[in-house]
Amino acid sequence: MLTPFSQDKAATALCRRIEEFFDGGRCFLLAKGRVALYVGLMAQGLPPGGKVLIPGYTCVVVPDAVQHAGLKPLYIDIDPHTYNLDPKLLDRVPAGDLAAVVVQHTYGIPAAMQPIAAWASSHSLPIIEDCCHTFGARAEGRLCGTFGAFAFMSGQWNKFFSTGLGGMLLVHEPALADRVDEIIRAEATSPGRWQNLRLEAQILAYRLLARPGLVPSITKWYRRLNRLGLTVGSSAEWVPGEMPPDYVATLAPCQVRQGLLGLDNIEENIRCRMEWTAWYHRELPLLGFAVSPAIDPGGMPLLRYPLRVANKSETLSLAAKEGVEIGSWFESPLHPAETPRDKFGYRHGMCPLAEGAAATVINLPTHAKVGLREAERTLAFLRRCARPPE
Ligand SMILES: *Cc1c(COP(=O)(O)O)cnc(C)c1O
Q1: What is the number of structural domains in the chain?
Q2: What confidence category does residue 27 fall into, taking pLDDT thresholds of 50, 70 and 90?
């Protein structure tokens, strides 16, 4: 196979297994999900300055990658139930200025692919799927990640399965895959031994320490160590708008190993996430919380279960104090809260429903380390500390 990993059997094996899972496409391994997006965009050779439509409810690293590729993000608001781009708004988008569309399956809720694909095809726009929250979910019976020109995934700690930071690119057009391959061969660096060692230490620490009750304090320490430059961070060395050195890099061997372990376990992972999704969906209404009608409790493996509360910041700070694993993404239309949004072409009010979601949505874990005791403790916590919106 013509990947830079041709000598590396484990990396090739990981790529093949991902291709098998999705029943097609060509997989490439990169240092992060954002890098996979960047490489995919570069390979598409879109006109410089072209606009890329992205939901205004995402991680800032997405528009950042778009800008690194010489393109401009254009934001579209979300459907308040799916948290995905609202297809009803597409007809108002100036499609003539667009070069591509990023469709994100937020929290693992599949986007409405049928109207989106019809609209994109009527304007000859390539679809890119942000699958950083999903692995194995289906939209209209078809696997998310198989609809577009390419899909990208993240192997960050808190994503579907972790490579201890990392990213995957799944390309569905053979010519595009060839160009991706060329770019990776020409530009990608491989993590050196020191980097591999640091990542390996992090993966080990994570395995030993990551339990739901410890997550808030671990996250705090991880960020501190990041700032000191002792760990390989997700975003610590990140300066808004600037491409970090060695941005285009491949996975270290220890990350590939983690990825293979993640895939060994993928069916169990998916089943577990489906079960917790169904569980929250049944239990939360009993506490007076409204659940999203877009969530299908009969088989949707959510990465995190989204829930709207009236007192988000209070709930999060109490949860951190009590060691209850509750997540805050997205804190802003361009997560995290501190993002200088103007540097990414976002102005306040552009996506009001996304801003509303950022102000009210917390998210609950669905991963395999959640046990019934923790889940019940989380519910008891929510009953005590969180208030349903009016
Ligand atoms: C995490 C995330 C990314 C980026 O993943 P990295 O591996 O950190 O680059 C992109 N999009 C969404 C929706 C994410 O949640």
Answers
A1: 2
A2: very high
- How would DSSP label each residue in 48-79? TT-EEEEESSEETHHHHHHHHTT-EEEEEPBP
Q: What is the pLDDT of residues 45-82, one digit of tens each?
A: 999 999 999 999 999 999 999 999 999 999 999 999 99
Write out the two tokens for 356.
Answer: 């509303």
Q: How far does the centroid of ligand 1 lie from the alpha carbon of residue 286, in Å?
A: 33
| Final residue before a domain boundary, out of 191, 215, 232 | 191
Domain extent for 303: 266-385
Last residue within a domain, chosen from 191, 216, 238: 191
pLDDT in tens, 186-234: 999 988 888 888 888 888 887 777 766 666 666 667 666 666 666 666 6
- Nearest CA to 327 out of 304, 354, 297 is that of 304
Distance, CA 158 to ligand 1 centroid (Å)?
A: 10
Backbone angles phi, psi at 334, to 5 degrees: -125, 85
**In 89-159, which ranges are E strands?**
98-104, 127-130, 138-139, 142-143, 150-154
Give Cα 186 distance to the centre of its chain.
26
Claim to verify: residue 61 and residue 152 sit in the same structural domain? yes
Residue range 160-188: mean pLDDT, rounded: 96
Residues 184 and 327 in one domain: no
Distances (CA, A) of 130 to 14, 105, 183, 238, 341: 20, 7, 20, 21, 20
130, 134, 150, 158: residue to mutate for ligand 1 pocket, most atoms within 8 A of CB? 130
Maximum C-alpha span of the chain: 59
CATH code for position 185: 3.40.640.10
